[in-house]
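ok so I'm stuck.
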Amino acid sequence: MDTRKGFVLLVHALIGWALCAATMGIGMAALSLQNALIVHAVGAPIYFTLVSLSYFKRFNYTTPLQTALFFTGVVITVDFFVVALLINRSLEMFASLLGTWIPFALIFASTYLTGLLVVKQPKKSAVSFKRLALSFSPMANCRPSGQRRVTSIIGYPYMALRHLSTIANWDLWGSSVQSVSSDVLKAASRLLAVSFKLSANS
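replied:
not stuck anymore, here's the structure
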């Protein structure tokens, strides 16, 4: 990892830590110590979920595990040298599960899970949807490559919905219901086509 990527990663980690520190400072001024620790423990994973979302969507230089380890390591390091040694002049805070170790664990978990959801889930969903669409078009492999691309974007969703409508026995309903269901199928296929195009472009 080059210097720029490391700096971006460090800035995100410090933003998350600063939000936690501000929450703890305001909480201790307005609440009892116990309540301030609870608010801090609840806020820490929320802050780092938002920070992780920003990092993984805009940069994504590291894996979810690497990012979670780095963010947690930065928080522990800053808490040790700045909060414990410089401000409190005591390591007593590290004896509190609610004050340190539970927030550390939640920061790691929230960062790691956010990374998994942002990085991996969209790709799997796109592949699964494409495979589902392919299963409803046995003639797709017989078409030229250019036509297969058009079919994969527009034709598959409509064929899938038509197939599902047959399974649901929609063709046994009255003509007026069939007309409405046909309009719904066409509208749904258009929406699916647009979403497929957007996912392909992204």
